[in-house]
Amino acid sequence: MRQRTGHRTYVVAALIAALALTLFTIPHVLPHKLLTDKLDLGTLTAHAGSGSEWINIRLDLESALTWSGHSYTVNGSGPYDYVQLKCSIHVEFDNVENVVIDFIKIRALDHLDHSYHTYTLASNKPVSSSPYDGTFSTGQMSISVHFNDVEATPDDQDRRWIRYYIAVRVSGTGAISGETLTAEIDYTWFNTYVYKYASGSSPPGGDKISSWVLAWPGASLAGLIILACLAFWWARRELRRGARA
Questions:
Q1: CA separation, residue 40 to residues 6, 43, 165, 182, 195 (Å)
Q2: How far apart are CA 41 and CA 127, in angstroms?
Q3: Which of 11, 29, 101, 123 is most buried by its number of CB atoms within 10 A?
Q4: C-alpha closest to that of 72 among 162, 201, 198, 207
């Protein structure tokens, strides 16, 4: 009888522990509402060198807008809370040594007063082989913090117009000539976002996401700790009961 009680105790404890682990895992497995759209100017290219010494670069641009409640509409859709700007770069070269991505920068410029903030996505990044592919981003930025970075000024309809420009430079040394080759894209406009505060709006497409899934992961961690303690307490109590039996 004691053996059956102990076996049942460990089964119950394992189930409670599994429930606790599930509570901790679900908020990380189920993604936030993430929408990705290609920007207006999808691809940029640049070339340096000639003959047997050359560098080619290609940029693919995109952004992501994330909803986790209600905050701002962007170009009339939304609302969203976070914005992310991303660049995928493809580099090819031949007979060029010490190839480096000198920088990838995105400049966010306020359309009204021309204040701006520059985000450096990459700096002095070595490119060891050809072809090379890499993806760089600003990371997920709170839209309100983004406004503070840019010092964005609202217009008479409380909209903030932010224009985005990208600049890239890749350089290296010709293996034959010893000359410096530089493939560069100077600041080039690729997109404009119009932001407007949208308090109380519903998420895009009417989709719903439970607020507990979007809660700070600390809440699920607290639940994990509580349930784990409950599992050990239950097991200890059952073992004591079994010992008395």
A1: 65, 9, 12, 26, 17
A2: 25
A3: 101
A4: 198
Segment of 34-38, 177-181, 188-192 carrying the highest mean pLDDT = 177-181
22 exposed, middle or buried (CB, 10 Å; 0-12, 13-18, 19+)?
A: middle
pLDDT in tens, 21-48: 655 554 444 444 444 444 445 789 999 9
- pTM, full prediction: 0.66
pLDDT digits (tens, 9 = 90+) for 94-127: 999 999 999 999 999 999 999 999 999 999 999 9
Q: Which of 120, 119, 116 lies closest to 148 in space, CA to CA? A: 116
Our CA angle for 54, 58, 64, nearest 5°, is 160
Q: How many CB atoms lie within 10 A of CB 64?
A: 16
How many of the other CB atoms lie within 10 Å of CB of 62? 18
